[in-house]
Predict the structure.
Amino acid sequence: MQFIIGKEEDFTLSVILEPFPFPVEINSVKIDGHVLQAKGTSQFVPGEGFEFDLTFEGKEFQGRIKIPYQEAFSVKGTEGSGPSLEDLLIAKLSSYRNQNVKQRSDNEIHHEVDTLLNRMSVTDKLGQMSQCMSTNLSLGSDIDSESPEKLVSEGRAGSVLSAVNSNRVFELQKIAVEQSPHGIPLLFNFDVIHGFQTIFPVPLACSCSWDMTAIREASAIAAKEATATGITYNHGPMVDITRDPRWGRVVEGAGEDPYLGSLIAKAQVEGLQGDSLFDPETIIACLKHFVAYGAAEAGRDYNTVDISEGTLRNVYLPPFQAGIDAGAGSVMNSFNTYQGVPVAGNQYVLNELLRKELGFNGILISDYGSIDEIVAHGNAKDSKEAAKKALDATMDIEMVTRSYDHLSDLIEQGIVNIEQINEAVRRILTFKYKIGIMDDPYRYIRPEKEKKYHFHPAHLEASRKLAQKSIVMLKNNGVLPLKSTELNLAVIGPFGDSKDMLGPWQWSRYANQTVTLREGILAKDFPETNLLIEEGCKVEHVIEGGVERAVAAALQSDIVILALGESSEMSGEAASRMDIHLPKVQQELAEAIVRVGKPVILVLTNGRPLVLDWFESHVDAILETWFLGSQAGFSIADVLFGDYNPSGKLTMSFPAHSGQVPIYYNHFKTGRPVTESNKGEKFFSRYIDGSNDPLYPFGFGLSYTTFEISEIRLSQTRMMESGTIFASVTVTNTGMVAGEETVQMYIQDIYASVVRPVKELKGFKKVKLAVGEAKEISFKITAKDLAFWNLNKKNEVEPGDFKVYIGSNSYHVKEALFELV
């Protein structure tokens, strides 16, 4: 245990508990003489608290601690970092390692798997298909299960979730190897979503970089750090297309576009899995959530999904196909239904579509509790029937719950076939051989590498650079970049000096070292005497006298930065919001500050598109910074002071009003489309109280310079199906500083056998230009770019007229016509 005690206006406390798998948030700290009393919580053990009662004498302390599900216990400690569990483990491990392990061929693996299968009982096989938690904690509802030690020793668990400490991985792997019936090593699974110890921007932010090389590098670093701890199987990436910002999990995806989402899925799989899964610094990638989870009605997590097959094929499926083509070793089902059948037990979706049509032959793992939830959906009488449905759908591993325990009875009754079990176990064992743990069970447990890799300076620098690229400037009337250190600057709002910049789905032990906005500004050699910091309010709660102190600070300043947004808990799984405005208390703070009359810059920390119409009208500049990770404050300050020229482009449309949701650029026209000539008339597909258009469209993002894009030049205007058209434009930097523009190409199929979107992204190129520099950008158009899922139930291209659009975002484009003959 480590206790990091700080002193700003008040005392602060950060707590690191190992091997407790989840971060602890301290809610209150009280100091009375030499006694420190604190209370905390973890979002992953709701309703349970942490209590710390410590008495200090010189450099030593003693006291009492209470953590969830354990009796209070006494502790003694001393100043300093102390011996880490990694140090204690390094000495133990040397005698357990197998040297000179060689990668096996596919034929060798096939032979070894079949040999092992023939020795295994039904109970042994079902154990490989079952997963347990690393501790007695559960996520969501309570799970009726025995301890991980008992399940592993009896061979009734083949994988473990959330063992995020190498010491715990070693303990459980040792039990599996030495005590389970066949000594089969465990897979260790975890959700490494945007970094392991070095935290990168959340995936939605990363996607706004439109930089596949940087995204691939971030994924590779995440794999490098996680595998050093012994984690071998990642529950990610999430490749769901997301069109509704009310859905909390938009933060985990790449936005609303299937083309861009497919490129990002490919980059993430390549980064996580590297050139070979035998490399102990790569990790099994798991594409989730198959399929259409992002289409949950009303943006409410776990809710019903009801879409056409055309929408499934043309919108939600492409990123999964791209990830499978990139070699993803695993896929996880979605929580929703498709055609009225829960996906966890849906034979059409998982067997016919995923395995047979898309060609996926890896491990299929259930999402947490989703097999049990087949009963809750009303598609199975009980968990026994649910288990059969999941097995029939070729589900290989049940995550944490124990429905698959019923399969033994179902086999004896002749209701399921043993070969179904064998096929599932064959896939699981194949990957255990592929990653080398069957020959060296401890090869991933490398505490010496943990000490080297975790929070490594090079990893932090990569996080900072990707964070810079992820920032999207939504408005700037000239107040940015900040040009002088002589000005008085007020930073007002709950995120001015907050370390809550990491976002959801991260478990870094280094959260207390997150760079705040205040720290980022001061790192620019900005005089501390010229910087005023006022919280004003909490994220969702009033601070007594907070607004008054914030207004006083604004009056003393030349420029105000409003640091507003969402807490990490307001995004992610089970964090859907009906109202996607900023919380009312922050809106009231903003209105009070704007009334002061000073230039105001809004810096947003958040995990979804928000309704910002009031801010667009009332502040001078808006930076969408999302949750940027470990180096957040540095990256934001880099943009504020012009050391990095913002280049991010939105990958989700920002609505002007909540009533427009869901809103996305690649929509259909309808039979009564709104045009410039009819937009004031009534009987068209429009609102009577506002525009259909988003406040900020897909692909939008400003720079400190300006770019001009010429008219489109086509190499030809008629194309055969086997032919090619090149669409070219000249891009010129017409501003006063060097910058980078992302030039985007969209295509519209004007008429077809089924209605097609008004435009679809089919290409983009990033170009860096010096002041006054011009470059020609050329896009290649082939029949593949024009194909879609049609009434023939095929992905085909149809002859006809097409428009090509090229521009700086999905709304501001030039256009040209061509014909496919």
The longest strand covers residues 739-749. The radius of gyration is 27 Å. The chain has a mean pLDDT of 96.
